[in-house]
Design a protein that fits this description.
By secondary structure, the protein is an alpha/beta fold. The chain has seven helices and twelve strands.
């Protein structure tokens, strides 16, 4: 496998009329990669907290997502119950097994039927935390792991995401920096999904259809509590 890879890269270098990679050039590349030099930062992301909230909300709503701002984490159960009722959905929800969600007092909404874990494709609604919210484009950064199964991001028709305001950043560069800091510079999660709005496609007749390859609705609960991790 290594020899085949070297042969393929060798043919590409010859086609591009480039010499073989020297040890000095390789060291320069490794140094550049390790530096994580930031790319261009859009001026529109240089805002205070309220400005970032407004930008994130505007961008997400512009792609058919919805946002509700909450004053504290203990308001999540009520917000979830209201969302289910508003869309005439059963009072059943699959939770990501994340400490943030497990610490919530769900007894405030006793009619909710809660289960936790991965989705097998039969769950209508999921609730997950976001690693970060990116105001630049109204995007959610969702990382995979035992506490955040990726199946919950894509299989249910409705995806509700809890985003503490401490995790809302301006540009993409800040989100990646936060992820590197959280991993201590070590291995990244197996999957990092950047989700902007519900799933959509216009492959057939250029007619947009929501829910083509994932949730048809995406609802973000912005929790106004910077003490949440």
């Amino acid at each position: 496998m290594v020899d085949a890879r070297a042969a393929i890269l060798g043919r590409l270098r010859r086609a591009l009329k480039r010499d073989a990679l020297t040890s000095t050039a390789a060291a320069e590349i490794e140094t550049r990669l390790a530096a994580h030099t930031a790319g261009p930062i859009p001026a529109r992301t240089k805002l205070d907290r309220e400005g970032l909230i407004a930008l994130f909300t505007t961008k997400l709503q512009g792609v058919a997502g919805t946002v509700e701002r909450l004053g504290a984490m203990d308001q999540v159960p009520g917000a979830v119950a209201r969302y289910l009722a508003a869309h005439n959905l059963p009072a059943a929800i699959k939770l990501a097994p994340a400490p943030m969600l497990a610490q919530i007092d769900w007894s405030r909404e006793p009619l909710l039927q809660l289960s936790s874990g991965r989705s097998d494709g039969n769950d209508l609604v999921s609730l997950t935390p976001a690693f970060a919210g990116i105001a630049e484009t109204g995007t959610l950064m969702l990382t995979s792991g035992t506490e955040s199964p990726t199946t919950l991001n894509f299989l249910p028709d409705d995806h509700i995401v809890v985003l503490p305001l401490s995790r809302l950043v301006g540009p993409f560069e800040e989100a990646w920096a936060s992820l590197r800091a959280a991993t201590g510079g070590g291995l990244m999660p197996r999957t990092v999904n950047l989700v902007t709005g519900p799933s959509r496609s216009a492959d057939i007749g250029l007619v947009p259809q929501l829910g083509a390859h994932g949730p048809r609705r995406l609802h973000v609960l912005l929790v106004d509590d910077d003490t949440q991790a």
